[in-house]
């Protein structure tokens, strides 16, 4: 029998051997990520008896909350029945039934599901499908992808290439010639004196001008998150999605809606593209909440119309895919996740608690260090603001981390992003738990404000 290692020992092993995503390379040897040991409901436990509300819901993904015995059972049953089957040569019951569910949730003629291993590979699949389609149609030059500054689409080469968070890709090579970035759409960053409507006009004009510059015959797709989540929960101005969608349609540019975060109930819908924003994309990418993070899985849902244009008279292969595409255990987890969400009416629950969540978020505006708060559904962001004399607070870039530290002391985890912090708790969160979470946030904002004066 082996001895269970102590918490200190685990930390040491982690520090010495685990390379974490987004390590700061000047300090990675000293990294000390919080060790989490167990979890239940909306709470994480660190193994020393300390309990934390999981503000980020894992990484925007734990919709049904932690500690679901029936999920563990569903995973175990599938692992015993059929743990793996090659998606290249086999079909399985969980994948087939899940695909049917997803196309039922998706709008319009999005009837075809390509399963992936997560969000990045779903985005890669969508972009490669566009390239494949245009090669198939003999439009070899219609390949440029329009993406947006502050957008995040993943960490594979192609998904990172369309990611517009400069800091995340500055030290990497990306496929720069393939991508054109549209400028920041955040209404909070609009010039003084400009109305939100005028901002919307300007942002729509940015898209039109990119098309005018490159030519519609060179542009294959526009990829957009309905809300730019990792960029700081940026909500484009009202009407932006529909207007940009219409321009793409008019110019035969595929519209790819990246719903890796906004899908599966985060905004109170299975998918937000149509139900919230009135658009019917050519492809929707999803992951995260699809399994509530219990197993890795993603999907690229493709319209009939795109599939028809990918269809060939020759036996050309759509040679895109992964050993773990449509993994039976992941698909079984997704089916159980959907069953739980349906049985517990989680979409309605999100719609019911959202007004209170968003009101408590808006209440934070009264604190001097808060420049902007924004959110939708169970998504929220606090952005640090200019100091009173108009100059940036010297340690403004640290506000996210300072808030995170203060919250952690009081039993809440948030996700710091430079001068912002974001949160997206499990969708099961109750009104009492929302109050608990915002009571802590309020104290933390106040406390950090005192430190910065
Ligand atoms: N797309 C969006 C909108 C995301 O937020 C993310 C991850 O945060 C991804 C894609 C990449 O997903 P994954 O980390 O599962 O590869």
Structure description:
Belongs to the class-III pyridoxal-phosphate-dependent aminotransferase family. This is Aspartate aminotransferase family protein. GO terms for molecular function: transaminase activity. Helices cover 39% and strands 15% of the residues. The protein contains 15 helices and 15 strands. It has helices at 7-17, 57-60, 69-81, 93-105, 119-136, 157-161, 166-169, 196-214, 240-250, 272-275, 304-310, 328-343, 346-362, 399-409, 431-452; strands spanning 38-40, 43-45, 51-54, 110-116, 144-148, 179-182, 219-224, 254-258, 283-286, 298-303, 370-376, 379-384, 412-413, 415-417, 420-423. Strands 4-10-9-8-7-5-6 form a 7-stranded mixed sheet, with helices on both faces. The protein is globular and about 65 Å long. 45% of the residues are buried.
Short description:
It contains 15 helices and 15 strands. It has 453 residues and is of the alpha/beta class.
Per-chain topology:
Elements: H1 7-17, E1 38-40, E2 43-45, E3 51-54, H2 57-60, H3 69-81, H4 93-105, E4 110-116, H5 119-136, E5 144-148, H6 157-161, H7 166-169, E6 179-182, H8 196-214, E7 219-224, H9 240-250, E8 254-258, H10 272-275, E9 283-286, E10 298-303, H11 304-310, H12 328-343, H13 346-362, E11 370-376, E12 379-384, H14 399-409, E13 412-413, E14 415-417, E15 420-423, H15 431-452
Parallel strand pairs: 3-13, 5-6, 5-7, 7-8, 8-9
Antiparallel strand pairs: 1-2, 2-3, 4-10, 9-10, 11-12, 12-15, 14-15
Helix pairs in contact: 3-12, 4-12, 5-11, 8-9, 13-15, 14-15
Bound molecules: pyridoxal-5'-phosphate (PLP).
Organism: Paramylibacter ulvae
GO molecular function: transaminase activity
Protein name: Aspartate aminotransferase family protein
